[in-house]
TrEMBL record:
Family: Belongs to the glycosyltransferase 47 family.
Gene Ontology terms: cellular component: Golgi membrane
Subcellular compartments: Golgi apparatus membrane
Lineage of the organism: Eukaryota, Viridiplantae, Streptophyta, Embryophyta, Tracheophyta
Organism, scientific name: Papaver nudicaule (Iceland poppy)
Positions of the UniProt region annotated as Disordered: 58-100
Start-end of Polar residues biased regions: 58-75
Membrane topology: Single-pass type II membrane protein
Single annotated GO MF: glycosyltransferase activity
PANTHER family: EXOSTOSIN FAMILY PROTEIN (PTHR11062:SF99), EXOSTOSIN HEPARAN SULFATE GLYCOSYLTRANSFERASE -RELATED (PTHR11062)
Ranges of residues in domain Exostosin GT47: 111-421
Protein's recorded name: Exostosin GT47 domain-containing protein
Major location (coarse): Golgi
Length: 508
């Protein structure tokens, strides 16, 4: 009997040891499996901004139109801009492998930003470039022929064109360009929702009404856009706060901006926006596309640039631009200063190119708005910018120190007798050379091109948008705290006239 009890005890002990061993093995396997799952679904890593690449690694392009590329394209289906139904549930995410077995370079799991883009009717984007859709297509076959963007001053505000091209190409197999953002086809998986309305081009080309019509095409498109966006589930889900809308020209989106104010705007400055509609907290400042040609292989030094200080442009401006007139009278008699009226007409661009390339310092003075394209022309010329604009906001300033390659002067100081010219004359050759070298190092951050390249203007804008995403998520998550106890998530568009009091809540 004792022997049986002993055997039973021994057997029970062995069983417990076996169970413990199996439990430990299972636990280890379970932990490792979850480790790999979490690793594969972790958040994308942003680009390290501690060191920017030198200008040698950042290719520049001519200011002309991009060249065509000969490849095959898969077109998305046409979607009516006023259609209220959403087809996101029928869409699929981009995968790492294409249908022909080639790896897609824009890896869904590695990009900084996942973007859902509305398939707006072509009248909102490439149709404004006189592109004619065929066979119900929404988008042109940009691997075969890229619709041309108009030149001249239109190019200054062409960010809408470059960002849209970059998103469309993000799904191409074996894409050669850089990839900070990728287009996804399920809006619930996106960080932001991109609205491909070429608003600056719409203003430049179609802001004047034609008889017998009382309203311009630009006005009608904005009206259609507001109706479309506010009927979408994506807008209702977030109240529009995760939507990205381009309004780079100061006069673009004049009618719609007051109704779409919760969205993230991509702007050139805040000069014509009240602070409760656009502000540095929620919106992104993007550079102008410079009009003059980049100074390629610039070996000119301090002594090779005979002009000390250069400005050519409109002198008599309204609003904050009064300082231009004041400075003209203060500087016009200085022998090594070029301060004259100029425009893009006739030989204006070539004249400005020659002038900036031959100057040590280039004035960037506030005009009708705080910003101007002149700053980015100066950067492309490696002409040290002298910024006189108290309210200016600068692209990427959260990651870039402009004081390393720009001179900032308060307006109140600049208009003092001899203050500005004495300040510039006292900058040493060594200090100017240091800033000149820095300009050559960072110039690529302001280049718009297709295909986009690492840390060029297109990629830098996407990265700036991605840095806004955590704040958007915070606001949305806080607004949804009581969604299960009677308080609904943002689900309906509220006209600006009835919702001014809500703006403070959105800023929490």
């Amino acid at each position: 009997m004792k022997m049986a009890e002993k055997n039973s005890h021994s057997s029970g002990s062995i069983s417990r040891k076996s169970l413990i061993f199996l439990f430990m093995v299972s636990t280890v396997v379970f932990i490792f499996s979850w480790f790999f799952v979490l690793r594969s679904t972790g958040p994308p890593q942003l680009i390290d901004y501690t060191s920017f690449p030198s200008s040698k690694n950042l290719a520049t392009i001519d200011n002309g139109n991009p060249q065509s590329r000969n490849q095959n394209d898969v077109q998305p289906s046409m979607r009516d801009p006023l259609e209220t139904t959403s087809d996101s549930s029928e869409s699929t995410l981009i995968t790492s492998d294409s249908s022909d077995g080639n790896v897609v370079s824009c890896d869904y799991n590695k990009v900084a930003l996942k973007v859902f883009m509305y398939d707006l009717h072509p009248e909102f984007h490439f149709g404004l470039l006189d592109w004619k859709p065929e066979g119900g297509k929404v988008w042109p076959d940009i691997q075969t022929k890229i619709p041309d963007y108009p030149g001249g001053l239109n190019l200054q505000h062409s960010i809408e064109y470059w960002l849209t091209l970059d998103l469309l190409s993000s799904n191409f197999p074996n894409r050669n360009g850089a990839c900070s953002a990728v287009r996804v086809f399920n809006s619930s998986e996106a960080d932001v929702v991109f609205v491909p309305f070429f608003s600056s081009l719409s203003y430049n080309r179609y802001s004047k009404s034609k008889s017998p019509h009382k309203k311009s095409v630009n006005y009608l498109l904005q009206d259609k856009l507001v109706k479309f966006l506010t009927e979408q589930e994506e807008w209702k889900r977030s109240g529009g706060r995760d939507h990205v809308i381009m309004a780079h020209h100061p006069n673009s989106m004049l009618e719609a901006r007051m109704k779409l104010w919760p969205a993230m705007f991509i702007l050139s400055d805040f000069g014509r926006y009240p602070p409760n509609i656009a502000n540095v907290e929620k919106d992104v400042i993007a550079p102008y596309k410079h009009v003059i040609r980049t100074f390629v292989d610039d070996s000119s030094g301090f002594d090779d640039r005979p002009t000390l200080l250069y400005f050519q442009g409109a002198i008599y401006r309204k609003d904050g631009g009064f300082v231009r007139q004041e400075l003209f009278y203060l500087l016009k008699d200085e022998k090594d200063v070029h301060f004259s009226f100029g425009s893009v007409q006739k030989d204006g661009v070539h004249s400005a190119t020659r002038g900036m390339h031959a100057s040590k310092f280039c004035l960037n003075i506030a005009g009708d708005t705080p910003s101007s394209n002149r700053l980015f022309d100066a950067i492309a010329s490696h002409c040290v910018p002298v910024i006189i604009s108290d309210e200016i906001e600068l692209p990427y300033e959260d990651v870039l120190d402009y004081s390393e390659f720009c001179i900032f002067v308060r307006t109140s100081d600049a208009i003092k007798e001899k203050f500005l010219i004495n300040l510039i004359r006292n900058i040493s050759k060594d200090e100017w050379t240091r800033m000149w070298n820095k300009l050559k190092e960072i110039e690529g951050l302001y280049e718009f091109q297709y295909p986009s390249k690492e840390n060029d203007a297109v990629q830098m804008i996407w990265q700036a948008v991605s840095r806004k995403v955590p704040a958007i998520r915070l606001k949305l998550h806080k607004s949804w705290r009581f969604s299960l106890t009677g308080t609904k998530r943002p689900s309906a568009f509220v006209p600006w006239s009835k919702s001014k009091h809500l703006f403070r809540e959105l800023r929490v």
